Give the backbone structure.
Amino acid sequence: MARLTRNYRSVTDDLWHMELKLYDTLTRGKRAFRPIDPARVRMYVCGPTVYDLAHIGNARPVIVFDVLYRLLRHLYGAPNVTYVRNITDVDDKINARAAERGIGIRELTEQTYANFKADVAALGCLPPDVEPRATDHIIEMRILIERLVASGNAYVAEDHVLFSVPLMPDYGKLSKRSLDEMMAGARVDVAPYKRDAMDFVLWKPSKPGEPSWPSPAGIKAEGRPGWHIECSAMSWKHLGETFDIHGGGIDLVFPHHENEIAQSRCAHGTDVMANYWLHNGFLQVEGEKMAKSTGNFITIRELLDDWPGEVLRLNMLRTHYRQPIDWTLRNLEESAKVLDEFYAAAADAPAEAISGQVIEALTDDLNTPQVITAVHGLRSLAQGGDILARNELAASLRFLGFLTDTAAIWAARRQVTHHVDAAQVEALIEARASARKAKNFAESDRIRDELAAMGVVLKDSKDGTTWEVAR
Ligand code: AMP
Ligand code: ZN
């Protein structure tokens, strides 16, 4: 009875004492989470702008807030949590890409959104309760803009509606930027119709061929919304004037979230838009900033060709969400091996209670590295024959979005997506060619079999041998 040797607290005991603490960017500290209404816990996360395949950096907030969503559902009951993640389907980049590809805007956004949904499902993320599209909320945006103009927080200039930043005394509270810093940022290329360099666009006229809607505030020309007002409108519609958690990547703190706060608070006359502001750190690839211009850019889809989604998910969660991540092949290989161990230890076990240690680590501002340490502890107990630990391991991993396959399917998946070392393959192909030249066919066949076991298929032709990884 290995279990008796552990100082074991019951799961109900743990839950009773466990208090969720979250790091709030607004107050720059960890605070106990108190929902406005425990029967309706509300979270909004800024979603993708759907013009192209999502990259692995975009996957970070999706995975991180999926873990928080799962935890909230566990703590408050699934029907008592509402998670809203929007889709930005009106944007300059969308217009440009649709024109470039010669397809309609709706066709582009539908396609990209379908791809995004498939990609994040493969990463083990639950669909949010509501995925509102910006273009379905133009009426709400117009209402907010009308209110802001009526209250004097916004003004009309050359068919634009602009938010007047100097009229909001505590603008800048979230990003804690000094006025000088913000001015310096805003001064680049100041549009002549702005009263102040920091003022930002709520509504702008559409150019010919761009999507357009009837404008608010008495503007005759048709127009389209600015980016920030979209999130203020969608969060208001689906979660109300003030809600519990607002999330997104750290790059969104300024100006996007700062401007969301300004718009929502001034339109509703409230002191807060959301009570907790959570931001994930940035992801870079092999030590370099991920940027399309440098080609240092990996889509989720490309990675899913080489790795099971669970490997990508675990790799993301091995780092605490507020820290930067360096996304490397080496770490992916390690994550894959760790999952092999988890599958070996618990894949076919029944899921019973989730480990109290796992929940405890999660309630400490989503400390997923600590969660993984706790899971490893359960794995060694399980491997030592502790059946209860094994079942708890299975329950905890499934709760976190892992172990969704049987051991057999996992093994097959790993075979197919096993990472192949290109240099090693090339060396083996060369050795095989030498063996064939020396008429040592037993050796050349042996090498072919070794490559086949690695999932590499050879194609011989008069120009030499090419290879590919079997799918
Ligand atoms: P976007 O489609 O660029 O608006 O980004 C969607 C989400 O992905 C936002 O929450 C961004 O903060 C986040 N994001 C974009 N790039 C990265 C990155 N390299 N690392 C982490 N999060 C990112
Ligand atoms: Zn937003």
